[in-house]
Design a protein that fits this description.
The chain is an alpha/beta fold. 27% of the residues lie in helices and 20% in strands. The longest helix has 31 residues, at 242-272. The chain starts with a helix and ends in a 33-residue tail after the last helix.
Length: 478
Amino acid sequence: MSDTEAAAARPNVIVILTDDQGYWALGAAGNDEIRTPNLDRLAAEGLRFERLFCVSPVCSAARASLLTGTIPSRHGVHDWIRHGNSVGEQPEGRLIPYLEGQVAYTDLLAAAGYDCGLVGKWHLGDSHHAQCSLEFPYVHARGGGPYYGAPIITGPDSEGTEPRYITDAITDAGLEYIDDHAGSVSPFYLSVHYTAPHSPWDRGQHPAELFSEYYEGCDFESVPHEPKAPSALPWTRFFDSPEDRREMLSGYYAAVTAMDAGVGRMLDRLEALGIRQRTLILFTSDNGMNMGHHGICGKGNGTWPLNMFETSVRVPALISQPGSVPAGVVEPGLWSHYDVLPTLVEHLGLPEPDVPGLAGRSFAPLLRGERPDESEQVVVFDEYGGTRMIRTHQHKLVHRYPDGPDELYDLDRDPEERRNLLGEPGLTHIREELLNRLDHWFERHADPAMDGAALPVTGRGQLDRVGAEDAFAKEWGI
């Protein structure tokens, strides 16, 4: 088989990425209050992961790891990108391509004959110019903002304002890309990166009918009622009253439901074009989200010190291709976004990449209805600056360099992470074993020049590449 024939035989690939969607914010995961009929449909048609984790509980760092299969201490994106995204952004519109010189899985797909595009949120610097072998036909200029009047780039020298509801506009751009490539001999890859359900959640930010039809009388019992945590940052928004809680949660749920409708439109279009069965769809979120969980509204940078709660690091994940991927399967194993690159390489039959620091293992056997090799104990790792996590099926250790505080949880007995067992009699050996494994794993996968444990990452944003003076924001004395 020639290279051209091999490329044509591979499926199209669509990756749908949401922004700040907790694993709990999904009907198929057991939330009977949120309306996600199309994501539930994807789950019924394919594989749903119960315990898949982002690599860092903040958007840009997580997105960089998903693309590259490496950790922040290898690719150098440690926080959300605050400077260098677009010309209209301060200071002085300097564009910074943070992933320059990195190899993304989209580069591997393009080398194998895929046409690759991205619509929606990029948030990895220089949104004006195509990167990682991706076309940028319609890209958000920054990392977030209003749902009406969003800053949008449609060309290297074009930055404007989108009057439409941004979730619908991103879906429209995705549909246009699908239409343009559906008849091509070459397979296509498309990233559809929504800004939903990231804040703002005010009533005027989302279609009024979503509130009136679904969430006007919702009790939101699917989200815990808790007081604001002492570790929650004082300037972060929290529920000032029952009315305020209902307002915020109804906006968050409405944003998810609007995004879900966009997913439904894309599924319908793929079916109408006759290409649904030869299109592999991966749906996930960049990071988790607390919406009152643990007394915070935010993710890893919703507290100080930065946190690694399950609700911050666990993300929804669905994979579907009717006729190829087993349908209606729930996968309980521990997996990470850094496993996506090796999975695509194996599943699509791509050449093995020569990339240093790859951190993951392939779950491609799951897509064939088989079990992966489980001869070694499975462990998931996360990092956010000096805060690092190692998680086994039973235990989680959060270690903060250089001076703590640290946390140890028994997730079998305490799945909501209420009791820190650090210092408990008889458990010292568990902490020491996990810390030893954590240190050795990061020694293998980190680049010393990018090591987050030695960097002043505060959760307030990354201003430049690692190595630049004042690369990380230091406001509020953190």
